[in-house]
Amino acid sequence: MFDALLAPFQYEFMQRAFVAALVVGTLCSTIGTYVVLRKLSFIGDGIAHASFAGIVVAYLRGMDYYVGAGIVAVLTALGIGYVTRRAKISLDTAIGVLFTGAFAFGVFLMSRLPTYNIDLQGFLFGNILAVSRGDIGLILVLAALVFAVLIVIYRPLLYTSFDPVVAQASGIPVALIDYVLLVLLALTVVISLETVGIVLVAALLVTPAATAYQLTRHFRRMLALSAAIGAVCAVAGLYASYYLHAASGATIVLLVTLVFFMAMLSKRLRRFAP
Amino acid sequence: MAIAVRTRNLTVRYERVLALDGVDLTLDEGQALGIVGPNGSGKSTLLRAIAGLIAPSAGNIEVFGGTPHSQTPGTIAYVPQVEAVDWSFPANVYDVVAMGRFPRMRALAPASKHDREVVDAALDALRIGDLRYRHISALSGGQQQRAFIARAIAQEPRLLLLDEPTTGVDASTEEALRVFVRGLVERGMPVLMTTHDLERAAEWFDRLMVVDRRVLAEGDPEKVLESGAYAGIREHAHTHGHLRGDPQLQERDDV
């Protein structure tokens, strides 16, 4: 029994996959708390799709995919913030315009190639088993950076998430905090691409936090609960995918979705309890 | 008394709508200035401009000799008329009031004894200490208003801007608020507040200003009300928008 539980760990690529799943699961669900409370659910999806253009450009130039995806993701995030502030259009409209444009650019470039050998499916749906030693290093460094910034701006980020108008009047640099959050989101999306893929990363940003929101009305508890749900589901989902011979990203997302509905159901049941 | 706020020719335009037109205003420390005017008269715009939330289209705003943006974080406390917050946000009354400390706190520094004392004092002053663990969605309108004023106080501001804090609030809450705000003013706080309540203006304010995009009258609250500047607002506003030329009303009773 115990041997069976440890079985996946005998492969080095599985060890790396578990580290990646744990870090990405925790990071996405932590920053996801702000995504859910600020109603930016669409944004992770947008940045992820936009970064596809970066992956294709990086391929054409023989660059590292992470660098290409990272540059485009950060630029898209800043562009989304800028367009929202200047053009006075809503954030979801700005995301809709920018991310479809960038994604189309990626498809356009790719369609003009006579042949290509990018692992397209890997980027769309994630390929956690292909995470290399170098990838793990990058994931750990960027995740540590994102966590550190989140801790430093904890108070102004919380205040601006709740009441940006009054926060700004009190002298908190609301625009700066918004931009920093968008850049952190972009970095989070980029390091999650290999683990869960472009199509599914939004689920890791939104679902654990939405689940925690069902269970508590206290901010710090929601943050901790969301991180815990994201971490446990990512690791457990990877485990399950190993035994079910299924795609890891999809299994992880299915698991957090299942936990979300369980939380919703338990909330309903508690309401009817005496 | 030192001047807290001074605007000169303050003009704010939204797209093609002129919201404020050449407003000159002076607020001294230790003084409560009331702003009255009909809906859409630019009262809220005036407060938002002084809070640094809207850039003037013309004219200028001085707050303690600088611009609204040059102030040390925590200097200006603004309580909007309608809190456009998400009431399902995971926060209780204590959390909301404690946010008032955030502009004053350094990153990573844990809340100090002083921070906690100021938050407790603000909760007590607004008499919502017993609601501290209640979720914000479970508050009445008056309790919400008290929580947001407590947050402003917890900020230890040097300037307090209140946008119709008495609208939709029961009589006892209004009276408690008035006593509280007057207490702050006696201790030197400059307060700028909009209101619809003309009857009690003299009890609230040291000076009253009638605004309908322009300043129509300004001075001692009773004299301003007697002048009929407010009652005649719709007839006079746009044709004789220079009532403030009236020397009697121009008189300022700031000492």
How does the overall form of chain B come out from the CA principal axes? globular
- Mean pLDDT of chain B, as a whole number? 88
Oligomerization state: heterodimer
From the 3D coordinates, which CATH architecture of the domain at 1-70 and 196-255 in chain B would you assign?
3-Layer(aba) Sandwich
Structure write-up:
The complex is a heterodimer of chains A (274) and B (255). Chain A is 82% helix and 0% strand. Chain A is mainly alpha-helical and 274 residues long. Chain A has one domain: ABC transporter involved in vitamin B12 uptake, BtuC (Orthogonal Bundle). The model of chain A has no long low-confidence stretch (mean pLDDT 89). Chain B is of the alpha/beta class and 255 residues long. Chain B has a domain at 1-70 and 196-255: P-loop containing nucleotide triphosphate hydrolases (Rossmann fold), CATH 3.40.50. Chain B has helices at 43-50, 93-99, 113-125, 141-154, 171-186, 201-204, 221-226, 233-236, 247-250, and strands at residues 3-14, 17-28, 32-36, 58-63, 76-79, 159-163, 191-194, 207-212, 214-219. The longest helix of chain B is centred in the C-terminal third of the chain and has 16 residues, at 171-186. Chain B is globular, with a radius of gyration of 18 Å. Chain A binds chain B through residues 37, 39, 151-156, 158-159, 161-163, 165-172, 213, 216-219, 221-222, and chain B through 51-53, 71-80, 83-86, 89-92, 95-96, 99-100, 102-103, 105, 107-108, 135, 148, 151, 155, 157, 161.
Brief rundown of the structure:
The complex is a heterodimer of chains A (274) and B (255). Chain A is an all-alpha fold and 274 residues long.
Task: Break the fold down into its secondary structure elements and pairings.
The complex is a heterodimer of chains A (274) and B (255).
Chain A: H1 2-6, H2 12-37, H3 41-61, H4 65-87, H5 91-111, H6 120-125, H7 133-152, H8 154-162, H9 164-169, H10 174-196, H11 201-215, H12 219-244, H13 248-272
Helix pairs in contact in A: 2-7, 2-10, 2-11, 2-12, 3-4, 3-5, 3-10, 3-11, 4-5, 4-10, 7-10, 11-12, 11-13, 12-13
Chain B: E1 3-14, E2 17-28, E3 32-36, H1 43-50, E4 58-63, E5 76-79, H2 93-99, H3 113-125, H4 141-154, E6 159-163, H5 171-186, E7 191-194, H6 201-204, E8 207-212, E9 214-219, H7 221-226, H8 233-236, H9 247-250
Parallel strand pairs in B: 3-7, 3-8, 5-6, 6-7
Antiparallel strand pairs in B: 1-2, 1-4, 8-9
